[in-house]
């Protein structure tokens, strides 16, 4: 009986830890998405200096999340998102607002998929 109780408590702890991880992921990635969106808006308004500053700040935060991301996110997903950050940085640095739109959409899609991958669904449980 004690083993069963310990097993149930362990399962409960894993479930609660998973919910907390989803919350943390939503906060971190949501903040990055907001900053990337602001950078895109600045680029569309031809304020490339501000756009580059905002995007560099977001990219630095993304790279600084290594200890977290390399534990909870697949490495291929991390690489894709990192590449998308630098694609957008390249477009903004070259002051190409049209290309920045495509790279923004690519980066936003990668960041959004990181959030949705971690969320619990019927298919991810069973």
Report on the architecture of this protein.
With 126 residues, the protein is mainly α. It is 89% helix and 0% strand. The chain contains six helices and no strands. It is elongated, with a radius of gyration of 18 Å. The chain starts with a helix and ends with a helix. The mean pLDDT is 90.
What are the key terms here?
single chain, mainly alpha, 126 residues
Concise overview:
Helix content is 89%, strand content 0%. The chain has 126 residues and is mostly helical.
Helix/strand/pairing class, anyone? mainly alpha
Would you count the extended β strands for me?
Answer: 0
**Biggest β-sheet: count, sense, barrel?**
none
Run of helices and strands: HHHHHH
Q: If you average the pLDDT, what whole number results?
A: 90
List low-pLDDT spans: none
Task: Classify the helix fraction into a percent range.
Answer: over 70%
* Portion in strands: under 5%
Counting H and I runs of at least 4 residues, what is the number of helices? 6
In angstroms, what is the radius of gyration? Answer: 18 Å
Net shape: elongated
**Span between termini:** 26 Å
How is the secondary structure organized here?
Blueprint: H1 2-44, H2 48-64, H3 66-72, H4 75-93, H5 97-118, H6 122-125
Helix pairs in contact: 1-2, 1-5, 2-4, 4-5
